[in-house]
């Protein structure tokens, strides 16, 4: 039975590696060599990475790729993507090319408001907390002036502060519900700092206020919300259905089947989850490459997908007659609180490169690019699903992973990639073909 360790965080990196490899691996020397083999050759860069988090032993690589040919609002982008799953980048690239030939993508930022809350309890009778809040609201805001000065000079700051009475759901529970504009920063630190100041002011002002002295305010917690339904971007594409002939179907036939696939994902949660997972293939890959917080994005996006009480497709599609012509439109509104300053954006050299490649976008531009990557991904997946099926293209891209798992040499890989240009890829088929190739 293993024993807990005390003071692990205080050990040196070498001591941590030695402890881990001894206690938790069957090959201590091999483990240490493996961890070391993933260190960056430049000690300063290695140290930079180690300092991002705690108890770092090594680095964990993800591929960094580019999906070119994204025409967004008339501008051409090569979109950086960090992701481990085969066929995602190929799919995004293929969809970018497809829509580049049909007018490109349009991205529109609809709103940029973020939210934070001070959760507190107070046993004062109904109306007393509201009355107190009305009297002290301007003071609570004034107490944050120093903290918000810089953000205000950039055009951001606190947009609104409300008291929300939640006593109907939890006894004595209220919130200070604040809206923020954080410009090019994702804003988590700014928002949390403001909220903690508001919480302090709230407690002090309540203790001094005659009607509240008998009912102390107890702050439970102060924290931003990663649910940002008012920080919203729309990505869309459209074209006449006559331009969409596909896989033996005429354009209208394909477009109708596509719309049907989206409608199914609107109504059927089992399908909606997979449909949205496909969207997040694109979103997460860009969010990671640009140094943003993919957990926050994931949590917020999925909550948004369930905003009416049922989990649904994030994307929508329709066919409409415009000037006597049937037109296909495919779009998605997505809550994306992204930053292009702060966090990892200036620290991680690859993140800096990703943002440079995108032309140093501001947060709103990055929201648009990211949403478009999600829409492109969704289009590529649905296009495959409603025509050839997903396995054909996905397995074609997965071929090298299968060959690597089977220990194929470079020559064998080259021969088998060539062979599978006109054969269907599956694990069994690759294993068989490799064996036959070796026996030749
Ligand atoms: P294809 O028609 O065999 O590709 O498609 P192609 O060889 O004719 O090439 C056409 C273009 O595709 C290329 O143009 C590239 O843009 C791209 P080019 O560069 O030649 O001018 N492309 C590639 N880009 C980079 N590396 C490559 C590559 N190959 C093609 N090796 C493809 C093949 C996989 C693109 C297509 O079948 C496809 O889009 N499939 C969908 C794959 C997909 O959605 N993958 C996501 C993972 S599956 C999943 O997790 C989500 C899902 O469950 C979601 C859902 O259910 O909704 C499906």
TrEMBL record:
Superkingdom of source: Bacteria
Pathway the protein contributes to: Metabolic intermediate metabolism; (R)-mevalonate degradation; (S)-3-hydroxy-3-methylglutaryl-CoA from (R)-mevalonate: step 1/1
Keywords: NAD, Oxidoreductase
GO molecular-function term, one example from the UniProt record: hydroxymethylglutaryl-CoA reductase (NADPH) activity
Any one biological process term the GO annotation gives: coenzyme A metabolic process
Catalysed reactions listed for this entry: (R)-mevalonate + 2 NAD(+) + CoA = (3S)-3-hydroxy-3-methylglutaryl-CoA + 2 NADH + 2 H(+)
InterPro entries: HMG_CoA_Rdtase, HMG_CoA_Rdtase_bac-typ, HMG_CoA_Rdtase_cat_sf, HMG_CoA_Rdtase_CS, HMG_CoA_Rdtase_NAD(P)-bd_sf, HMG_CoA_Rdtase_sub-bd_dom_sf
Class in the EC hierarchy, top level: oxidoreductase
E.C. code: 1.1.1.88
A Pfam family matched in the record: HMG-CoA_red
Keyword NAD: yes
Family: Belongs to the HMG-CoA reductase family.
Protein name (Swiss-Prot/TrEMBL): 3-hydroxy-3-methylglutaryl coenzyme A reductase
Lineage of origin: Bacteria, Pseudomonadati, Bacteroidota, Flavobacteriia, Flavobacteriales
């Amino acid at each position: 039975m293993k024993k807990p360790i005390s003071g692990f965080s205080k050990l040196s990196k070498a001591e941590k590696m030695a402890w881990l490899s001894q206690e938790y691996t069957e090959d201590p020397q091999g483990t240490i060599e493996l961890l070391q083999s993933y260190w960056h050759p430049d000690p300063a860069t290695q140290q930079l990475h180690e300092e991002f988090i705690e108890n770092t032993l090594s680095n964990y690589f993800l591929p960094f790729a580019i999906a070119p040919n994204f025409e967004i609002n008339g501008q051409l982008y090569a979109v950086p993507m960090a992701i481990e799953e085969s066929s995602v980048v190929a799919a995004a690239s293929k969809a970018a090319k497809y829509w580049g030939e049909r007018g490109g993508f349009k991205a529109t930022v609809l709103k940029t408001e973020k939210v934070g809350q001070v959760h507190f309890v107070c046993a004062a009778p109904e109306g007393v907390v509201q009355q107190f809040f009305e009297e002290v609201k301007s003071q609570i805001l004034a107490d944050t002036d120093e903290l918000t000065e810089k953000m205000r000079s950039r055009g951001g700051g606190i947009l609104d502060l409300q008291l929300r009475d939640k006593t109907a759901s939890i006894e004595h529970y209220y919130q200070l519900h604040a809206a923020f504009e954080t410009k090019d920063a994702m804003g988590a630190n700014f928002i949390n700092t403001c909220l903690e100041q508001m919480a302090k002011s709230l407690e002090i002002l309540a203790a001094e206020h005659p009607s509240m002295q008998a009912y102390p305010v107890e702050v439970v917690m102060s924290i931003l919300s990663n649910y940002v339904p008012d920080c919203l971007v729309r990505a869309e594409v459209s074209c006449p259905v006559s331009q969409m002939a596909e896989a033996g179907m005429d354009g209208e036939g394909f477009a109708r089947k596509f719309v049907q696939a989206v409608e199914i994902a609107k109504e059927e949660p089992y399908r909606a989850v997979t449909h949205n997972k496909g969207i997040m293939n694109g979103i997460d890959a860009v969010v990671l490459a640009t140094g943003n917080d993919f957990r926050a994005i994931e949590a917020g996006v999925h909550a948004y997908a369930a905003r009416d009480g049922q989990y649904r497709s994030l994307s929508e599609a329709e066919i409409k007659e415009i000037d006597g012509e049937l037109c296909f439109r495919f779009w998605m509104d997505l809550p994306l609180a992204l930053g292009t300053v702060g966090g990892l954006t200036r620290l991680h050299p690859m993140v800096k490169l990703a943002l440079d490649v995108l032309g140093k976008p501001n947060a709103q531009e990055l929201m648009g690019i990211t949403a478009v990557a999600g829409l492109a991904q969704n289009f590529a997946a649905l296009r495959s699903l409603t025509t050839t099926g997903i396995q054909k293209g996905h397995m074609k891209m997965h071929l090298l992973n299968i060959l690597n798992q089977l220990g194929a040499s470079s020559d064998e890989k080259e021969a088998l990639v060539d062979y599978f240009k006109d054969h269907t890829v599956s694990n069994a088929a690759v294993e068989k073909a490799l064996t036959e190739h070796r026996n030749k």
